[in-house]
Amino acid sequence: METMETDIIIRHQVVGVFQVNVYLVVCPETKKAVIIDPGGEGERVVRMVEEEGAEPIYILNTHGHADHVLENKALKERFSIPVCMHEADDEFFSRKKVRTQSQKELGLPPPGPADRRLKDGDVLEVGKLRIEVLHTPGHSPGSVCFHVRGNLFSGDTLFVGDVGRTDLVGGSLETLLKSLEEKVIVLPGETIVRPGHDYGETPTSTLAWEMRENPYITDFILAK
Ligand SMILES: [Zn+2]
Ligand SMILES: [Zn+2]
After folding, report:
1. CA atoms within 13 A on the CB side of 163
2. For the packed helices 42-52 and 72-79, what is the interaxial angle rounded to 10 degrees?
3. For the residues 193-218, what does the mean pLDDT come to?
4. How far apart are the first and last CA of the chain?
5. Which residue among 99, 140, 143, 171 has its CA within the 20 to 30 Å range from the CA of 196?
């Protein structure tokens, strides 16, 4: 019997009070891996890593909101790996005023400094995987999506049938729509959308589906 070749391993768990999707993305050939948005319950993330026999080499944050970064420090120490965040959020969430406001809005402590600052267009080599960084500001100034082998880890920029809040400090709906228009809907329609929270009818979707069904895309971008 022929088995289909798996070119990427993706696991996820829903963690923390904000029910964030933390993802483990593994290169099947080398077992090198990244942890995306460890927002809580670090031990469950560690278990997932162990079950896969994976070797994490980066912690990636789609943005700096507390619910996506809470376990950065613990997992960074556990695996001795760097925390990576877009430069704009690393800078933004280091400002005292922003930290105070974000703490008030989310009721959780904002992130510590990143070890590596990401920029738009950066490519992270993880075994044979190439993870591309797309800067998609709007939900926060340094929000990003991670694009790898037909998968888009969209954080709080794009949910299934919805988009992220833009009323938190540093948010802008206009900027978010521009990001979707210029960086996201230009990707192939079969791209699988893997959001930061499971707020939709299904846990994942495709960009083709979003372009038909997501009112922010149909009404504010495509109908322009
Ligand atoms: Zn957020
Ligand atoms: Zn979130």
Report:
1. 32
2. 40
3. 97
4. 51
5. 99
d(Cα 208, Cα 212) in Å, to the nearest integer?
A: 7
Q: pTM value?
A: 0.96
- Residue 58 has φ and ψ, to the nearest 5°, of -145, 150
Task: Give me ligand 2 centre to Cα 67, in Å.
Answer: 6
Residue with tokens 């994490």: 56
Q: Give the pLDDT band (50/70/90) at residue 165.
A: very high
Could you tell me the domains of the chain? Answer: 9-222 (3.60.15.10)
CA 2–ligand 1 middle distance (angstroms) = 42
- Residues 40, 41, 42, 46, CA torsion sign: negative
Q: Is the model's pLDDT at 2 over the cut of 50?
A: no
| Cα 182 to middle of ligand 1, angstroms | 20
Other residues' Cβ atoms within 10 Å of the Cβ of residue 99 = 17
pLDDT at residue 1, rounded to an integer: 44
Mean pLDDT, residues 141-150: 98
Do residues 122 and 107 touch, judged by C-beta distance below 8 A? no
- The neighbourhood of ligand 2, an ion, using CB within 5 A, equals 67, 156, 196
**What would the pLDDT profile of 80-111 be if each residue is shown by its tens digit?**
999 999 999 999 999 999 999 999 999 999 99
